[in-house]
Fold:
Amino acid sequence: MNARVPAFVLGGTGYVAGELLRLIAGHPHFELAGVLSDSQAGGGIAEAFPHLQSAYAGRSFLDLAEIEALLGAAPRAALFSAAPHGVAAALIDRLLQVAESGATDVHCVDISADFRYRNAHAYGAVYGHAHGAPARIAEFTCALPEHLARSPTAHVAHPGCFASAILLCVVPLLAAGIAEPTLFVSGVTGSTGSGRKPVEGTHHPRRHSDLYAYNPLAHRHVPEILACAEAASGVAAQVHFVPHSGPFARGIHVTVQARLRKPMSGSAVRDALRDYYAGQPFVRVTEAMPRLKDVVASNYAHLGVAADGTTAVVTAVLDNLDKGAAGGAVQWMNRLFGFDETAGLAAPAPGWT
Ligand SMILES: NC(=O)c1ccc[n+]([C@@H]2O[C@H](COP(=O)([O-])OP(=O)(O)OC[C@H]3O[C@@H](n4cnc5c(N)ncnc54)[C@H](OP(=O)(O)O)[C@@H]3O)[C@@H](O)[C@H]2O)c1
Structure:
């Protein structure tokens, strides 16, 4: 079957949805069938995303009934959800029911937190509300593609942006027995990580030319990171995480420090990480410590390594909207449909953003 797979995007006017639309516009095997907007159905896609004018001139956001009609009639469908947590699960459940009753061959990648937990109770304990589709949880697997060769389920939950950067650092340290399982993590995120709706803590005048920590040792994504790290490495770890707000729009920079289990040089730890990620097209272990500008606006993640005999440091940089969200979701969707996982994602970073 050579026809492109119809792609559906939920979370219409959001930042991650916009990045999904940009990636789908340049993808060789997916084409946009419809993008749902809860607030702007009928409005022009290019009005919300002027940078996408060349790809979607004349195309409009759709409402739920329109998405359901298109999805139910499609033989195959790629369903990308960039809706908020707490909204995504029920929406996805409803659309998967439509796809199932229409015999649509569908795969879903959810970028919210809704399907990252193994049970509804664990989800509710962190997010403070009932899960929107508990019966669907078992149909999703949460992992980075670099840590799981093949999803055992038809659908995938993206681990998230800070989680992607942290997991890329900690999983090889744990899986290869390099580090003790008590990990100290400092991370900096750009303002697009907080989504489109302005709030006091993410407002430009406040963030610009400034740097500050928030929620130290209490970030709500830590339980998800621990579960993913254990599933990928087989080791139950502790992660002590201090996130920071950075004065830039795109990108995540995390630094993991860990006690070595036996004395190792920096080059030995670097070689171990290179072995671990051998053959992974989007992860590079660099000689120098990595810089955000080398990866922003791309699906690549760069890791830098140092060690002093007792302590290992691994630093990761990636783009929160790409590898940390939309790009990582397209990477999984490529795999779920049996396409080359780099399809539509191989463009290098611009370097100067
Ligand atoms: N930003 C990041 O770096 C990042 C990274 C990893 C994961 N994520 C996750 O990705 C998802 C999207 O993040 P984002 O940064 O794009 O957020 P965002 O900019 O706030 O966009 C979310 C969009 O969801 C839609 N929405 C809101 N309420 C809705 C409802 N009741 N029903 C249906 N749609 C609704 C809205 O668009 P419409 O009104 O047009 O529908 C809104 O613009 C979130 O779950 C977030 O946690 C974000």
